[in-house]
Amino acid sequence: MLRFLLNAIWFVLGGFVMGLGWWLAGLVAAITVVGLPWARACFVIGNFSFWPFGYEAISRSELTGRTDLGTGPLGLVGNVIWFLLAGWWLAIGHVTSALACFVTIIGIPFGIQHIKLALIALAPIGLQVVPSGTRPQGVG
User: What integer pLDDT is reported at residue 20 of this predicted model?
Assistant: First the structure.
């Protein structure tokens, strides 16, 4: 119930706008056929940006125990391209929203979520959104 309440307040007080920002970045990436891998990441993290409480983004290599295209060298190249073209814009949006949330004591949990999303915005390729507590045993 608490997770639902936090997500509802989050959605109204900034999550909706930032989720739309992620989806807009995804649409722009999808228009260019070359940007389809980034588009998928944008839509997944956009959904996460709409309802972040109760979920976390972790590396797929941590989750599965093996590397793939998104967690290997190509993922690094993809994240660098992403950062240069769109990542820093979304990160600035989340940091700005976080600063607005930190103005009040009640907004602090929301500001922390925005900071987490800002870090994700810098390099989203290779991450997977999972329910909280899904980390494999032995992983911090």
Answer: 92
Q: Do residues 88 and 122 make contact, with C-beta atoms less than 8 angstroms apart?
A: yes
Q: What is the mean pLDDT of each successive set of 10 residues along the chain, which is 140 residues long?
A: 86 86 91 86 89 87 79 86 88 91 90 91 86 66
**Could you tell me how far CA 33 lies from the centroid of its own chain?**
22
Per DSSP, the three-state class of 132 is coil
Cα dihedral sign for 32, 69, 133, 118? negative
Quick one: DSSP state of residue 68? -
CB 110 within 8 A of CB 101: yes
Q: Which pLDDT score is estimated for 127? A: 85
User: What's the CA gap between 132 and 64, in Å, rounded?
Assistant: 16
Enumerate the H helices of the chain as residue ranges: 2-10, 16-31, 36-50, 60-64, 73-82, 88-101, 108-122
pLDDT attached to residue 103: 93
Distance between CA atoms of residues 99 and 108, nearest Å: 9
